[in-house]
Amino acid sequence: MSTKSLGTIDLSSEIEGMSARQLRARLVTIEPGGHIALHSHKDRPTMEYVVQGQPVEIRNGIEIPHQPGDMVIATRDVSHWWENRGTTSVVLLPVDIFKP
Q1: Do 91 and 26 form a contact (C-beta atoms < 8 A)?
Q2: Which residues of the chain have pLDDT under 70?
Q3: Which among 2, 11, 39, 55 could disulfide-bond with 21, CB atoms 3.0 to 4.6 Å apart, if both were Cys?
């Protein structure tokens, strides 16, 4: 898996009550046979756009296949991980509120 930062905005100067938070956008690439480890979105909501490939998301124990063009929303109740079971790279574009 590789991650490329596309940009961040320091929200502490943009929105009252958002001290030490950033809005960030990244490109995440998962090679064939690769995965992103299990993680939670508690305190880190995200929207992930599937740019390329056909990843499988395992969300709260349920497998969900995705296609290019899908928008995946993950809020505080979501624990998930991603797999690339295909033969081409998966590219995700996550945008999230993050506490560095």
Answers
A1: no
A2: none
A3: 11
